[in-house]
Amino acid sequence: MKEQIHIDPQGIIESLTPIIDQVIKNKREEDKEALILAIAPLLPPAISEQIRSHPQEIAQAIAPELAAAIREQNKIDENAISKALASEMGKAIKEQIAIERDAMVDALYPVIGSTISKYMADAIRSINEKIENAISLEGINRKIRAKMQGVSEAELIFREAIPFTVRAVFLIHKSSGLLIADAQPENQQKLESDMVAGMLTAIRSFVNDCIARSGEVSEIDAIDYGNSKIILEVAGYCYLAVVTQGKTPQRYIRKIQKSLYNIVQVAGNEIEKFAGDPDTIPQKVQQILANLIKISEQPTKEKKFRLNGLLLVTSFLLGIIILPWGFHYYRQEVERRLEQETMEAFASVPELAVYRLNANISDGKLQLSGSLPNSDLRTKAEEIARKIAPNQLIENKIIAVELPPNPINIASEIKRVTSALNQINGITVYSSYTSGKVIVKGKVSQIEDGEKITQVFKQIPGVKTVTNTVQIQPLAIATRIYFDSGATDLKATDKNKILQIKTLLEQNPELSLRIMGYSDPIGSPDTNLKLAQSRAETVRNALITQGIAPKRLQALAAPTPPLGVDSQKPLWLARCVEFQPVVSQENNQ
């Protein structure tokens, strides 16, 4: 058979063709598993080739059973198909809208339309109730409140129809955008805190970097979207982000500001160093945030009633009598509130809280009275009052009293400053005080230290003149570098000494060094002098390599041994380089 296949393959094929199907059928009945194992490796590439060559026929073959296949897959894993399609749903909806927008509108209208209709129906019903009862005590009260707030009655009605709520409060680190703490109502869907923190920080950075004018200090304070708002209140290292819905009352803005002030007072240091660990933040901060979520409930609505003709006339007559009194009472309440807010603002400023200041409104003016120790605080008090009442005339009657300093307090402060200065390395000073004049004596290692000492004493209240006689005494350098006989190269053990000298020069930029080279008396004086000069140059080059400016280093050679080394001492002590500091005003500048 093999020989025949080799001789005439086409003849063999023609002979087997009529019975090949019967052979396969018999093999299937005989050993079905073996036939499957034999054919299985061929099926995937065969199907792939068929899909590539005849996609339409494959689609027609699979289509009748596609729905049944999906149903069976749902029985096996009901989430598999939804997970597979989820990533493409958004693209599919966008494409469908682009192809047939009206069909999408018709499909979504029953859901979205009914939701919007219900919301608008509730809002309009509330508005209609308020309009129907406009001629009522509540209606008259609303008209008065609308006038007081400077808005139309319709706007006030709409505000009342959509009440103010707080959805979330976030405390965010300003520079990193990390979430420090947050608070959200228990009965609402939670917002993604970390995502909100990162988004808001990115928006703040974009506005501050790209929109704010160069040199102008400003902060974005709110982000509006629809009927909601994100209120931002910024402090030094953090800011509060409060997500609200409805019209935000001014009193709640002040509550946010006061809460942020309390947070900074409680955890200012922890917030400054915050690196992402919420356990480092005091629990008191979470309590403050939770308090911002709580909103005092609106007072229960009074029972409404309609007025008949007689009651209308009676109310009108009473209105003629009561309205002037009510207006006068309202004016008094507004003035009293401004006075109280001004006094509270004074009390919240540490520089002003210790002084007795008064704020009274008289003849249409906000009059400020009291005594302060200088004109700067007097001006600051007036600026604070203008922020509280920007539309009010300010009459500043505060008296700036220049209080004479207490000599005992001045002497005590001079003593304290002197003690503090002596704690600084390289400063040793003594001071005396007489009749407003301070005399300072002592020694410092840097020229700039002497200038700073004068400025520090001048800033003490009551000091009129400062006489500074301190002397500049450079730091002594005891380090020496020794060389072998006849050698000019540095030893490996001397590298640390070079680094110590480098550190000293970096810490004292006003110092220059005179590098003195020495040699032992062995040999001729000329040879020893050249050898000493080479050693000094070697050390100078090593310091230049470490980044020290060449102009600060002077290499010199001495014909005699260094001070303290005589003929009785070992010769190796004379083969050295020593350092002599020189104060240079040019380097200091």
Q: How would you portray this structure in words?
A:
The chain is of the alpha/beta class and 589 residues long. The chain folds into five domains: 62 residues, no CATH class; 133 residues, Beta-Lactamase, CATH 3.30.450.70; 88 residues, hypothetical protein tt1634 (3-Layer(aba) Sandwich); 66 residues, Histidine-containing Protein, Chain: A; 103 residues, OmpA-like domain (60s Ribosomal Protein L30, Chain: A, 2-Layer Sandwich). It contains 21 helices and 17 strands. The strands form four sheets. It has a five-stranded antiparallel sheet with strand order 2-1-5-4-3. Strands 6, 7, 8 and 9 form a four-stranded mixed sheet that branches. Helix 18 links the parallel strand 11 and strand 12. Helix 3 packs across helix 4 and helix 9 crosses helix 10. It is flat. About 2% of the residues have low confidence. One of its GO terms (cellular component) is cell outer membrane. It is found in: Cell outer membrane. InterPro entries: Bact_OuterMem_StrucFunc, BON_dom, OMP_bac, OmpA-like, OmpA-like_sf. This is Flagellar motor protein MotB.
Provide keyphrases for this structure.
alpha/beta; 589 residues; flat; hypothetical protein tt1634; Beta-Lactamase; 5 domains; 17% strand
Arrangement of strands in the largest sheet? 2-1-5-4-3
- What's the CATH architecture of the largest domain? 2-Layer Sandwich
What is the terminal-to-terminal distance?
108 Å
Instruction: Indicate the radius of gyration in whole angstroms.
Output: 45 Å
Portion in strands: 15-25%
Seen as an oligomer or otherwise, the chain set is single chain
CATH topology value of the largest domain: Beta-Lactamase
Whole-number tally of structural domains: 5
Subcellular location: Cell outer membrane
Domain BON: 334-402, 406-474
Protein name: Flagellar motor protein MotB
Main location: membrane
